[in-house]
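Subject: mismatched residue count in predicted assembly?

I count 750 residues in my input, but I want to confirm that the predicted structure covers every chain. Input:
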Amino acid sequence: MDESKTPLLDELEEGHWPSFVQQLKEAAVKSPAAADLLLQLEKSYQDNTGHWKRGGIVGVRGYGGGVVGRYSAMPEEFPGVKEFHTLRVNEPAGFFYTTEKLRQLCDVWDRYGSGLLNLHGATGDIILLGTTTANLQPCFDALGEIGFDLGGSGSALRTVTCCVGPSRCEHGCIDTMDITQTLTQHFQSEIHRPSFPYKFKVKCSGCPNDCAAASARSDLAIIGLWRDDIRIDQDAVRQYVDAGLDLFQEVLRRCPTWALGWDEKSRQLTLNAEDCVHCMQCINRMPKAIRVGKVRGAALMIGGKAPVVKGAMLGWVLVPFMEMKPPYTEIIELLTKIFDYWGENGKSRERVGELIDRVGMATFLEAVGLKPAPQMVNAPRANPYLFWRPEEVQQNG
Amino acid sequence: MAKTDFGPPDYRQMIPSMVRENYGQWKYHTVPRPGVLQHVSESGAVLTSVRVASPRLVNTDWVRRICDIADRFCDGHVRFTTRHNVEFLVSDTEKVDPLLTCLEEQNYLVGGVGLAISNIVHTQGWIHCKSAVTDASGLVKSIMDRLHEYFTGKKPVPGKLRIAVACCVNMCGACHCSDIAVVGIHRTVPRINHEMVSKSCELPSTVASCPTGAIRPNPKLKSIEINADRCMYCGNCAAVCPAIDVMDPRNDGLSIWVGGKVSNASTPPAFSRLAIPYLPNHPPRWPEVVDAVEHLVEVWRAKARPGERMGQWIERIGWERFFQVTGIPFTDKHVDDFTHATTTFRATTQFRL
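Triage response: the counts match. Full output below for your records.
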């Protein structure tokens, strides 16, 4: 038997967890690009460093993004990955597919690329990993024929992503799928033609559990919530208690505002509704007994991002409650104002959260036409350095 | 001219008929066994979802095999989760057990639902990224090989635990808000190829790219220079100027962060905080990192109360006791000195000695 060319990666074929090395090897049988990717990766494992060049702009006609150019730094050794570009393909909302559609996608990708892909990338796109410059346009055209368009890359609106929402979850306070589809269609040009100071992400979660990680990972997070009371089914509560749920430890004590109590005599859960901050804790623990309320909308959070450049930020409350009904005019108009203000005032590579940090939230709110609300702050300021506008004071001399 | 700007396939054409019929009508769900969710609709309809681990980096034949299974048991529909898992949605309850048998026969791992460790959200690594300190796929494989029994439910855990891996401080994988995060870091000042700077970099944007103002122009060389005392090795300059090299295989490594989350349940969303500043980058199995992650999981599992996530447990016992019970040394690296450092300094005598 021949000695293996990838002894280090071979070790990652063992073990219980599904192996990406097996995926690479299977693809390598059919694709010279996948075969050389495997060898270059083995080299990285030997050298403890990557072997990709930096830079290189490639694309398809009419778009300024959606393709990430990638070239091997060792093209002589690994000619199969000399050009190894990525296509970011916009996924259907909620990551639902018919097998027919997925098979069509596989056929296109076998024809034009390495046969390797991510389901899905960190932002949400289908990531088609590895094709040549010459194949980009024909691949894009073939994708278009089966109904797949590209997602965002670079300083653009990135692919909008959502949780499963009302399609398969009882907590969905807003139609995350419809909102995602609508925003995606409305802002096609902002997705495909980078014209922003930096990237802008929008994610949509159906409830405050935030399964789309919207408040951490998107510049504008749309998070479903309700403004009336949670709905309690007392019989179902008693079933949980009788089945051994430690109500005090797992529900009452963990309610952030002690809004829930237990009346031992009537064996009823009591609710001090005005204390509830709709955190989801009790609902998560007793989904059969407690449900979200009926008057629903979304909170909008602004500025969430990972560390680059000035440190990580979690999205801040921008709109405490917005009704979310088709055609979603209010949020589309607000997003447009945000893009305009940030486009005018943002520095190169400055995310909108960093712009707000620089100019101040009050300035930003005024610019996008929103009024300050107490829900936006943990507490009002503690310093006396207030700014007054000329019209708010009497002019001297 | 090819058509453009038509957007993704409409989800309405992608969802199974039971989802279409019960859209927005789901009443509650149960978890009948690890890895399986059962959603019950107001109409009485029951939809079973079976969650399966994926390596994220897959090939087209793997996708076709997933499709074969979905054709047999799920009327030709399948979905994926935000954490890279596959979900088989079964409308016919009779088909659930045969599906589980089929998955077991083909060695798919079922799990990752509710109180469990789900799949690791991660980045590209050496597979495809130019700025990767390490290989995310290999790290994930190594960590989950060790932790797979927490995924399948064989080993129960007190709460949700979400792990993320990012190959550099760009943290493309939500590492900054995960229960446990593994992040590739640099530890040395970038090297400058002055000749190349003058040819291929824009000086003002390179200078402006530095969050600590450590870069200034060097007119003599038509290049830039870096103030080593101010540089914290973020690599942002290298991202805008290819003549700057921050990669240092001898010194780059991995850091471990704990206690973050995105959900609002019980406590607000929170950042992950530094636990271990540096571990060596040791492919192909990263034993130091895998041991450290497993250790953190095991200490949390032994000490947390039911329902407590990593950060909620730490908040209750205090960071001082976290370092004590995990045996992780608290060092100068743990004290923040970046933009919002002072917000992390304690201003109360309420602590444990």
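Chain B touches chain A through 115 residues (CB under 8 Å). Marking this ticket as 'not a bug'.
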